[in-house]
Amino acid sequence: MRYATVTLRWRGRRLTPTDELFGHDAAIAVESIRYVNPVSDDDDRYVELLEVRGDLEKVRALLAESSTALEFAVTGSDDRGVVYVQWRRADLVDDLLSILREHEIVVDWPMRFVGTDGDRGLEITAIGTSRAIQRAAADLPEGIRVELERLGEYEPGVDPGATLTERQRELFAVAVREGYYQVPRETTHRDLAEILDLAPSTVGEHLQRIEAKLATAYATSMR
């Protein structure tokens, strides 16, 4: 059994109505999709469970005003919460779910949003046979760009990336994208600091903590 972790990026289409509802509001950030699926095979609704960060009262208000949110509930405290919502089935998620079902691909939830507003993507870990994963990737709708992050034999255990906070995952993704871990390095703490609007010393401290967490988690998974 194989797994492939990929980042999907697209333009011109919404993933779900959530994109339109929350996507342009600086007070709300959707961090991951814990679950999304049709309510039933003969129904035109699907359910979505989201992790959000930001103004939860505004999340409730936007959902209450939406003409496409059929039912919803928001739970959480401070600036983090979980949103349950039912939508009419539509948008890009329909195509993606159909491909996963057709090729009998299992998703290792959650699907995580990565990157910045200008280059945002959805990170998905798909589990199945090598052939099924290859065929599913070949059937993706036109306009979706696929970036392979990790590929290998699936063995349940500790996911090193799961030990990182959302902020650490974002910073680590920027460091990888900018070539910090290439040999030789293609960027510096100062370069990353300018992108992330942080002090170079703060970037260095964050990367040290990230690397320590990843190394510890990886060593634990090998026992």
Please characterize this protein's 3D structure.
The chain has helices spanning about 15-20, 55-65, 90-100, 130-140, 165-175, 190-195, 200-220, and strands at about 1-10, 30-40, 45-55, 70-75, 80-90, 105, 110-115, 120-130, 145-155. It is of the alpha+beta class. The protein folds into 2 domains: about 1-155; about 160-220, Arc Repressor Mutant, subunit A. Strands 1, 2, 3, 4, 5, 6, 7, 8 and 9 form a 9-stranded antiparallel sheet that branches. Strand 4 (about 70-75) and strand 5 form a beta hairpin. Helix 5 (about 165-175) packs across helix 7 (about 200-220) and helix 6 packs across helix 7. The chain is globular and about 55 Å long. About 15% of the residues are buried. It comes from Natronococcus jeotgali DSM 18795. Keywords: Transcription, Transcription regulation. InterPro entries: HTH_bacterioopsin, HVO_0513_N, WH-like_DNA-bd_sf. This is Bacterio-opsin activator HTH domain-containing protein.
